[in-house]
Specification:
- By secondary structure, the protein is of the alpha/beta class.
- It has four domains: 3-117, Response regulator (Rossmann fold, 3-Layer(aba) Sandwich), CATH 3.40.50; 122-308, Rossmann fold, CATH 3.40.50.300; 312-376, Helicase, Ruva Protein, domain 3 (Orthogonal Bundle); 395-462, Homeodomain-like (Arc Repressor Mutant, subunit A, Orthogonal Bundle).
- Helices cover 41% and strands 14% of the residues.
- It is built from 18 helices and 18 strands.
- The protein has helices at 11-23, 34-43, 84-93, 105-113, 119-132, 146-158, 175-184, 206-211, 228-231, 247-259, 285-290, 296-302, 318-334, 342-350, 356-370, 404-418, 423-430, 434-446; strands at 3-7, 27-31, 48-52, 54-55, 58-59, 74-79, 97-100, 137-138, 141-142, 165-168, 193-197, 236-240, 261-262, 271-272, 276-281, 305-308, 339-340, 375-376.
- The strands form six sheets. Strands 2-1-3-6-7 form a five-stranded parallel sheet, with helices on both faces.
- α13 crosses α15.
- Pfam families: AAA_lid_14, HTH_8, Response_reg, Sigma54_activat.
- This is Sigma-54-dependent Fis family transcriptional regulator.
- It comes from Verticiella sediminum.
Length: 467
């Protein structure tokens, strides 16, 4: 039976917590200060610690130092003086969660529900972590390079906690796969993992999609709709392209992160949610704050544990491992036995891969299809994009007297062509949102203009086990 240590200087609080914790199937010990708590920890290593932030002889966070680094302990901080700073500090130190006085007992029960009642789940997760590091595989990711090993170490540390994670990396580096791995290595792994692309939802619908709406809340709302926060209850919500979320909605997201409560559109009753947030962006988040794309207070709330994903060009010979794994999957799917030639492998290593793993996956699929025999050669599908692909956009000739609309159209289409049809990349160069770019391209298509097809890296693979 798992053991809980309650550390609080208020007798009534200790008694109330002990009663709740015992009813949830835990053994309980209590301490009124740091000195007593440290004695209890030596006598019996707890599985869970509920500790007040302010104790008579110091801060509850000092108990982190008393814990054995090799023992997994769920540390839940209790505070009567809630602030974003104290919450972030606690989560960065390794706290699994924090509670604000007066304690919401239902929220406490929700947190305790995530704690395994036997050693089976913990052993399963521990075994999974060890297995994932073999042969350069970590969850759905592949790679033996030093940057990836460092990333694996950081994921391993943050996954078991409740810390909010901010993933920063170029397009195609596998941010969703990292988020999935964090979820699968956490105690939330039996609950939903829900990915949301904030830049792909219409600004008019994003609030409804996030928080849901009641029947009749607005024109067309013919039934009740549960939003992402309800559907991901107990699990992990992955907010991709967080800088594309409208500023007015960022205010509401911040409130949900701070209170754990939200309201559906069309109703005044608050709903409690238990969701871990993993956010991601391919922008520099601090520049996004300076540019007004991301609220500073939301950035600090999301940036509890930042993870930087290395681009493929910085991962050495990982490209060989990933390419071989992709080919193995294609051979398995189509019952073939195709192989990679040495020249093909050398070409992969020399290429800069501006679209990262996403670009590599699409290239491998084309090379597989075009191979005339059972060996993939570079001549079948030449790598056209040079390492200098990220150079400034192609120049556009604009004569005096044309309309601004026509100049705007020429610039957008030329930039899109320069980016190989990759709309996300073109939108970044143009300094407009992806939604705005799609709207403009729809207008040009209606006018009969040729719009470039999607490029190699326009669609994020959702289930491909590569990164």
């Amino acid at each position: 039976m798992p053991h809980v240590l309650i550390v609080d200087d208020e007798p009534n609080t200790r008694e109330a917590l002990a009663e709740i914790v015992s009813a949830e199937g835990f053994t309980v010990a209590s301490a009124q200060d740091l000195r007593q708590a440290k004695i209890h920890i030596v006598r019996q290593s707890p599985d869970v610690i509920l500790a007040d932030l302010k104790l008579p002889d110091g801060s509850g966070m000092e108990l982190f130092e008393a814990l054995d680094p090799g023992v997994s302990v769920e540390f839940i901080l209790i505070t009567g003086h809630a602030s974003v700073e104290s919450a972030v500090d606690a989560l960065r130190l390794g706290a699994a969660d924090y509670l604000v006085k007066p304690i919401n007992m239902q929220r406490l029960k929700t947190i305790l529900d995530r704690i395994p009642r036997s050693g089976d789940l913990k052993a399963e997760i521990s075994s999974l972590r060890g297995e994932l590091r073999r042969i350069g595989r970590f969850g759905r990711m592949l790679g033996n390079s030093a940057p990836m090993q460092n990333l694996y170490d950081q994921i391993n540390k943050v996954a078991p906690t409740e810390a909010t994670v901010l993933l920063v990396g170029e397009s195609g580096t596998g941010k969703e796969l990292v988020a999935q791995t964090i979820h699968e290595l956490s105690l939330r792994r039996k609950h939903p993992f829900l990915p949301v692309n904030c830049g792909a939802i219409s600004p008019n619908l994003i609030e409804s999609e996030m928080f849901g709406h009641e029947k009749g809340a607005f024109t067309g709302a013919d039934r009740q709709h549960k939003g992402y926060f309800e559907r991901a209850h107990g699990g992990t919500l992955f907010l991709d392209e967080i800088t594309e979320m409208p500023i007015e909605l960022q205010v509401k997201l911040l409130r949900v992160l701070e209170t754990g409560m939200f309201m559906r559109i069309g109703v005044n009753r608050e709903i409690e949610t238990d969701v871990r947030i993993v956010a991601a962006t391919n922008r520099d988040p601090e520049k996004a704050v300076a540019d007004g794309r991301l609220r500073e207070d939301l950035y600090h709330r999301l940036n509890v544990f930042p993870l930087f994903l290395p681009p493929l060009r910085e991962r050495g010979r990982d490209v060989e491992l990933i390419a071989q794994s992709m080919l193995d999957q294609l051979n398995s799917d189509h019952r073939t036995e195709k192989t990679l030639s040495p020249a093909f492998m050398e070409g992969l290593i020399q290429h800069a891969w501006p679209g990262n793993v996403r670009e590599l996956k699409n290239y491998m699929q084309r090379a597989y299809i075009m191979a005339d025999d059972n060996v993939l050669h570079p001549s079948a599908v030449p790598l056209r994009m040079s390492p200098a692909r990220a150079a400034p956009a192609t120049s556009v000739s604009i004569t005096v007297g044309i309309s601004l609309a026509e100049a705007d159209k020429r610039l957008i289409l030329a930039t899109l062509e320069h980016c190989g049809g990759v709309k996300k990349r073109a939108a970044e160069i143009l300094g407009i949102s992806l939604k705005t770019l799609y709207n403009r391209l729809e207008e040009y298509a209606l006018d009969g203009d040729r719009v470039p097809e999607d490029g190699e890296v326009d669609a994020e693979p959702k289930t491909a086990p590569f990164a």
